[in-house]
Amino acid sequence: MFELPPVTEAWEFLQKNSVAIGPQLHLLLWALGMLIIDFVIPAGRKAVSALLALGGIVMAGLQLYLLRSSSPISAFYDTVVLDSFATFFSALFLIAAAVTVFISYRYLEIENEQHTEYYALLLFATSGMMFMAAALDLITIFISLELMSISTYVLVGFLRRRRRSNEASLKYFLLGAFSTAIILYGMSLLYGVSGTTNLIVIGEQAKLLQGNTLLILAVFTIMAGLCFKVAAAPFHMWAPDAYEGAPTAVTGFMSVAVKAAAFALFLRIFFVAFHEVRGIYVPLLVAVSILTMTWGNVAAVTQQNVKRMLAYSSISHAGYVLMGLVAGTELGVIASAIYLLAYTFMNLGIWAVVILLRRQDISGEQVEDFDGLYSRHPSLAIVMLIFLLSLAGIPPLGGFIAKYFVFSAIIEVAMDPSQPYASLMVWLAVIGVINAVVSLYYYFRIVYAMFIQEEYQPAPLSFSAGLLTAIAITGIVTLLIGIYPQPFINLARAATSPLL
Amino acid sequence: MEFFMANILNFVCYFPLVGVVLIMLWPKGKEHETAVKWIANLVAFIGFLISLPLITQFNNPAFIDMTGMRYVIRTNWIDALGVQYYFGIDGISLLLILLTTLLGFLSILSSWNAITERVSEYYCYFLILQVGMLGVFMALDFFLFYVFWEVMLVPMYFIIGIWGGPRKLYAAIKFFLYTLLGSVLLLLGILALYFYQHSVTGTWSFDVLGFQNLEIPFNLQWWIFLAFFVGFAIKVPMFPFHTWLPDAHVEAPTAGSVILAAMLLKMGTYGFVRFSLPILPQATIHFLPWLLVLSVIGIIYGALVAMMQKDMKKLVAYSSVSHLGFCMLGVFIATPVALEGGILQMLNHGISTGALFLIVGIIYERRHTRLISEYGGLSHVMPVYATVFMIMTMSSIGLPTLNGFIGEFMILQGVFADPDYRSWAIFGAAGIVLGAAYMLWLYQRVMFGTIEKDENRTLPDLTLREFATFAPLIVLAFWIGLYPRTFLEYLHEPVNQVVEKVRPGEFMPLPVQSAETK
Questions:
Q1: pLDDT at A68 over 90
Q2: What are the sequence ranges of the domains in chain A?
Q3: Does B173 contact A448 at a Cβ distance shorter than 8 Å?
Q4: Which of B73, B140, B183, B502 is the 20 to 30 A CA-CA neighbour of B163?
Q5: Which chain A residues are closer than 8 Å to B154 by Cβ?
Q6: For B197-252, how does the pLDDT look when each residue is reduced to its tens digit (9 = 90+)?
Q7: How far apart are CA A262 and CA A430, in angstroms?
Q8: Alpha carbon B453 to chain centroid distance?
Q9: Which residues of B touch A441 (CB under 8 A)?
Q10: Considering the domain boundaries, does residue B241 fall inside one?
Q11: Residue B350 lies in domain
């Protein structure tokens, strides 16, 4: 153990190092501040906190923007690093959080649960995610993972008067805690074999430890735990229940940001620490990927509840993101990043539309609630069509570019004779594209309801400026990624360079 | 004018969007429907007119680039992937584009009274569909091709799904899923090509002509061919991938069926001619016996099933399967004459089957039934209609002086020119006989005899508008039948190129008039 430095030195140390975690730190402090300010906000005016939260997000975003081009800053004895990977994902989480705030305030009003805590928790979770993207050390990883997870458990149960929400929260908490424990177990094994908690050093050690049973066990347990977090089959059971029971805005947030954060971790750990032992886990990851997308899609086909259907659809999308990880190449990691990018926008857009349909006694959760939407609100239906087509991977939309990238990553590996498992990759690609076709079937049930069914629920939609802004932003970006993907590809390429 | 000619492909392709925008901005409501119809018809007609300069300037050296492609437009689109926005046409695409603009207009014209609900949407989807189809025939970048190929599925889904018959939902989603399944496998094939090209040449590109110059190892060709085959064969559709077709045709509104038969199916055959054959020649030769078997099964099976139908539209739909089998027979055998005949037969099928769907649509509009048994003796009350129907029947079964004869004759002659597969011509000929049987039997049951149903006694004959939709098709049918050279001379050059790839040195090339001597 090292000796504690004197106070002034400690202060200097903090000042120097906290630059790297500036955005996260400020977001945390801001959220804490919001909880205090809450005392002076009158009961009927809690919506103000939405604005406050937005302010915090903008501030953190601004800070992130100012730090964007600097070379990687690692801090606190290499436990966190602010590199382009962390910046990319942090920006993604901030955008997701901002959109979530936009789609939340009206929804919470309808549900009669407008509280400052909601927004504060959102910021806590976001901050945790940003730490996850920046973490380079097992301990930091674990703490940031917990910060995100615990905030999310509470958010899922935020509709405290609803049994479904409570049930979802408890389920999510129990299974989530279980998976965190599994990850922790893997981490302890990893520390045992490598003698360090630093991912980079572990990566170097792994080279020497090829074939070590404990290392393999550690890889598998961490993988299982992360599969829980990204809701990959066969560890996805919690997702449909949690997604269905959670407040819809939180569902949207979970299905994109929480998932993306877990994937950021997945990418960082598996590229930095475990890249040398790829041979061990690739076949298993292929199986998980195939199982995830197939299970998610097949289960989604049978759903009547839109929230559940989209929950299963988001499970299947996790399978596609995993394909980038399976490929393990430069293109593969770019593919995963770009998939998460496109997915964030299109999926948030979908949830925004679902929230719009939540009004009076109508939950907006049944496929029938979409009936005849086109006849009353043509532009809304068209935007929804864009999101659904994008999710199904129809060009020229963001989802197509995303799918294009994951498939090209897989085909690249399949075409390379020096790579092991080339033929496995071909099957993965074929099953992947067939799954895309299956997914279109259930997405088009909503399209059918919107455009072809005639009956219409006459109750007016719950329009709000925030929701419309959210839908407009996500819609435009979804289109933009499809029509002019160049800048987004550049972003993803820059973001993933630290991993290679 | 110079600007127009330099970007003519863009103008032709995207002009229908002008109509979409206008219709969307136009005030909604029943009283504005006539205006919307006028807009759609005018836009489609102008769209046809602006595609005409494609012919007149086709051999103008100013618009020919080194590869022999005309009116090339080429800019970078996605640099990171080497994707280009690359349009260009040769003789094959020229004819298909003109057929698209013409039939697009005619099918819009034919919808005037048929569509009474959600009128403005209907025309929007049609015009968007038009853009997608034109883009497919113009794209020379595989990525771009794929984008148009997929884009066109969505409006077609809505056309079948909203204005279709009783089983429209089933038919629409089946159409979409089938085609999508094919196209995603096609995408994998494209990606394999793309990475192979990079491993050999080091360039990232989706340039179709570049792919054609690759020497791809047979093993890889084999896989890519399978992927392409599923993609295109579903679209054509070839037996056994044809089951979506009768459903889609029967449920689609008349104009949808016309476009489906005349253009959408051609995208599959065009895919084979443009991509599978020249890029994967060895695999094509390797699979040739199987391909011929499937084509012939399509011809015979389609014809036999057509003969048994009680519903006229279903009959015409199955006749499509049979005719497309014919096209594919000509295309796959890849002797110069057969290939050219196969391509010409694509046009012929577009003209005659398109017209037959219109013909069925006309009595369906009047009687709201398509059952053959509901009719009989119509020639007494609808003489003009009877004449049009007769001409198109004859065109479909390949009576000399009409277009079908030229295509079928060329295909059979071309098949015969290949000593190994000479005997396959017998099956082709059998298909013609069966074709004559079901078409003439249909005509006999519907048009001749005495009128037995009272409703049929007062059926009005063709109106001027309806006749106007048929007139160009009749003219074309006779034109191709009497003087096919006008059309064939555009095909010689590209056909020679394809044949040279697939079966180098085996056949005398077709005589090409070079651009200079003209």
A1: no
A2: 20-499
A3: yes
A4: B183
A5: 385, 389, 394
A6: 998 888 899 998 888 888 889 999 999 999 999 999 999 888 889 899 989 998 99
A7: 26
A8: 36
A9: 173, 177
A10: no
A11: 308-518
Test B80 with A486 for CB contact under 8 angstroms.
yes
CA distance B346 to B221: 26
Q: Give the count of Cβ contacts less than 8 A between chain A and B.
A: 80
DSSP A258: I
Per-residue pLDDT tens over the stretch B117-128: 888 889 999 999
Q: How far apart are CA A24 and CA A123, in angstroms?
A: 9
Q: Taking CB atoms and an 8 Å cutoff, what residues of chain B touch A440?
A: 176-177, 180
Residue B285 lies in a domain: no
The helix-helix angle for A22-37 and A48-66 (nearest 10°) equals 160
Q: How far is C-alpha B368 from the chain's CA centre?
A: 27
Q: Which of B335, B317, B324 is nearest to B299 (CA)?
A: B324
Show the beta-strand stretches assigned E in A207-281: none
On the 0-12 / 13-18 / 19+ scale of CB atoms within 10 A, A112 is exposed
Q: What tens digit of pLDDT does each residue of A97-127 get?
A: 999 999 998 888 888 888 899 999 999 999 9
CA distance B345 to A381: 41
| B345: confidence class by pLDDT, cuts 50, 70, 90 | very high
From chain B, pick out residues whose CB is under 8 angstroms from the CB of A393: 184
Return mean pLDDT, chain B.
89
| B79: closest chain A residue by CA | A486
Residue contact B191–A411, C-beta within 8 A: yes
B177 inside 8 A of chain A by CB? yes
User: What residue type is B343 in one-letter code?
Assistant: I
Q: Best interface-test mutation with A: which of B84, B191, B220 has the largest number of A CBs within 10 A?
A: B191
Q: Which DSSP string corresponds to A330-369? A: HHHHHHHHHHHHHHHHHHHHHHHHHHHT-BTTB-S-BGGG
Task: Find all residues with CB under 8 Å of B43, minimum gap 6, and list them.
Answer: B15, B16, B18, B19, B22, B127
Residues in chain B: 518
Exposure of A398 by Cβ count < 10 A (0-12 exposed, 13-18 middle, 19+ buried)?
buried
CA distance B37 to B111: 9
Tens of pLDDT, residues B71-85: 889 999 988 889 999
CA A262, CA A266: separation in Å to the nearest integer? 6
Burial letters B107-141, b for 16+ CB under 10 A, else e? bbbbbbeebeebbbbbbbbbbbbbbbbbbbbbbbb
Give A-chain residues touching B223 at CB under 8 angstroms: 426
Chain A interface includes B42 (CB < 8 A): no
pLDDT one-digit tens code per residue, A381-397 = 999 999 999 999 998 89
Contact A444 B187 (CB under 8 A): no
Residues of A in contact with B29 (CB under 8 A): none
Kindly determine whether residue A396 and residue B151, on different chains, have CB atoms separated by under 8 Å.
Answer: yes
Task: Tell which residue, B10, B280, B281, B343, has the closest CA to residue B144.
Answer: B10
pTM for this model (two decimals): 0.93
Count of beta carbons in the 10 Å neighbourhood of residue A90 = 30
Spatial distance between the Cα atoms of A355 and A364, rounded to a whole number of angstroms: 7
CB contacts of B162 in chain A (<8 Å) are 451-452
Q: Which residue of A has its CA nearest to B191?
A: A408
User: For chain B, how many structural domains are there in total?
Assistant: 1
Distance of CA A167 to the CA centre of its chain: 22
Which residue shows structure tokens 């110079």? B2
Chain A, nearest residue to B160 by Cα? A452
Ramachandran angles phi, psi of A233, nearest 5°? -65, 150
Is residue B298 situated within a structural domain?
A: no
Q: Are A434 and B184 in contact (CB < 8 Å)?
A: yes
Q: Does the structure show a pLDDT above 70 at B518? A: no
User: Closest Cα to residue B90, out of B189, B231, B209?
Assistant: B209
Residue at B29 is within a domain: no
